[in-house]
Amino acid sequence: MHYHFRKAELSEIAPIWEILQQAIQRRKEDGSTQWQDGYPNPEVVQKDIEKGEGFVLEDGDTIIGYSAVIINYEPAYENIEGKWLTNDDFVVMHRVAISEKYLGKGLAKLMLKNIEDFALSNNIYSVKADTNFDNIAMMKIFENLGYIYCGEVYFRGSPRKAFEKVLHKQN
Which domains are delineated in the chain? Predict the structure, then answer.
């Protein structure tokens, strides 16, 4: 298995959207309200990619995961009910999804590690993220990777659990 993490291309919206649709369906089957309101959608993915913020995880030539990776911008994070660990530059990840065929292989963790490496390569030492209260799988991943629960943020009127991980300079 040779996994590669890179910026997505506009020509890749279809396979990315397929992975997101699988994730939306999984959340629904889990009884979650997350991603059940028409968001994310193909337009959101297109905007991510146009801004250079859409990233894919590949196995050879096959796209198997997607995430938006954004530097220093998430208006919802300014109004946290709680407190972030840092107030410096940060990377935020949104829309993390892994292909149905690749579940259970630790690839969401691998993707988060790639996002952390991306942050470090830009001399940024904080990664922030949020997830729905009922997304137990994602919260476990955050916990396993050393993300700290910081409080609540709100998206489209819904509360989310907010997490941050402070990264350390690589020697």
Answer: 3-166 (3.40.630.30)
